[in-house]
Amino acid sequence: MSYSGSMNKGWSEEPGKSRLIILLIFLLALFLRLYDLGGESIWLDEAASISFSKGTLFQVINRISGLTYNICLYFWIRLFGSSEVSARLPSAIFGSLVVFMIYKVGRSLFNKKTGMASSLLAGLSIFYIQYSQEARSYILTTLLTLVSMYFFIRLLEKRKLCISIGYMVSNILLLYAHPFAILIPLVQNLYFFTLSPRSNGRKGNSLKIWLFLQLPLFIYFFQGISSYVAVFYRVKETMVDLWIPRPAPISILVSFLEFSGSLSLMVCFFISSLFSLLIFEKIRGKLNFKIILGSLADFRWNMYFSDIQSNYFLILWLFFPILALFIFSVFFIPSYWTRYLIISSPAFYLLAGHGISNLKDFFTKLILLTAIVVFSLINIHSYWRDVNKEPWRDAAGYVQRKALPKDSLIFIAPYARCPFDYYFTRKDVQEIATTPDPGFIAITGEKIRLLNEIIGAKERVWVILYHYRDPRGLLKEYFSSHFQISVKKDYSRARFLNLKFQNFINTQEIAIEVYLLKKK
Fold first, then answer.
1. In the chain, how many H helices and how many E strands?
2. 187-211 burial by CB neighbour count: b if 16+ within 10 A, else e?
3. Beta-carbon neighbour count of residue 1 at 10 Å?
4. pLDDT band at 9, cuts 50/70/90?
5. Residue range 76-85, pLDDT digits in tens
6. pTM
7. Which residues, other chains included, contact 17 with Cβ-Cβ below 8 Å and sequence gap of 6+?
8. What is residue 460's three-state secondary structure?
9. Which residue among 125, 267, 367, 471 has the highest number of C-beta atoms inside a 10 angstrom radius?
10. Element (H, E) at 267
11. Partners of 301 in the beta sheet?
12. What is the pLDDT of residues 388-406, one digit of tens each?
């Protein structure tokens, strides 16, 4: 595998100007990820991560899914607490390091200009800023993906012990960061075996060495396969956890839309990626504004493919996880969700960054880069202005202020208690009850009967509604016929998806409703 960029030049050998540019991009990315870090409420998934990491170390280690991030968060919150800022700060740091690592990978695959352009796109990416301000494992998984790919590229250039160790360690951490991270070593294997050892000038024993380096993959596969198979059959049989819809082909386009941040940016990224794959050189021709059409007829262009092996690697990295998860979601369990595909997104930024660096005309390059920066800043402004996360702070805060001693709390969805309890600290509420049925989201007559048994003869009951479906209005009818509704608060204006593609994706309104019911 041959590359345009040199793999061997260390950071200390970088020209001062390049180091300054990368430092400024890194500091800009760090600022964008730290700004207003605790401004919004902890939402359901973040609360689950924090709650789980507050358990014992044995409980954290015993859970394979998200192990790398959970261990980090376990020690972090014991040192710095679990406030909104503290819990999200590791992700902000990881997200800033993503910008640096995407530079290193881009420089290794192509050249420094590609690395700098890609790091700027990643630094301004609202997709990355969003997950860098969330106490979840996604941005750490992205960072480890880039580290793994960096060592993979170095490994193909030269086989050194330190590089081999770095590759194995990064893959171990990556595999235990997220279940779908297994797709990254599969991309690496696909690239390795489609470009045979002979075609890359490798010795005959390279296959044995490569298989040895895949040992973490084999161990993870056989360790986790039994638990994942059990989950697979449980979900397939009960269909309880299928909150993700079965994807359609347009879902892939939506993923690129989310990677980009807006439709205008997606168009810019696709145009830039085209210039990564193809080089256009003008042979002759000059534009005459007096006879524009006539002068255009004299133009002659030479077009050829650029950096074929490196681009092939990026295309595999970008499309293989997307297509694999899409096929799995269509034929088995619906699991296609763009945040699970964040492992593919760096390849998209690298292709776009390489395309920008490939442009020969300075003004064309300046116009394209300026458009990307302007559209990105518009997205960032919208992100700062809008409410993007579930407002549990407001909902729990209201009940905390208004509840009387010995009031009861009931959660229609049991998992809603986790983010509510993050903010609700009162100890004088007599009872916190939850409906025991995890599938209580769909309201039926039987579930109304169950709810009536739970409420019993209580005089004052606070009911927290969250993510429920009641097309026949059974729940509201039950409330009206059996109780006096003293309080009804609606916290449904925030959207679950930070990126609001109103015409391209069905944004899911968050329905957090708070009722105070009194016996008639």
1. 22, 7
2. bbeebbeebebeeeebeeebeeebe
3. 17
4. very low
5. 999 999 999 9
6. 0.86
7. none
8. strand
9. 125
10. helix 263-277
11. 282
12. 888 999 999 999 999 998 8
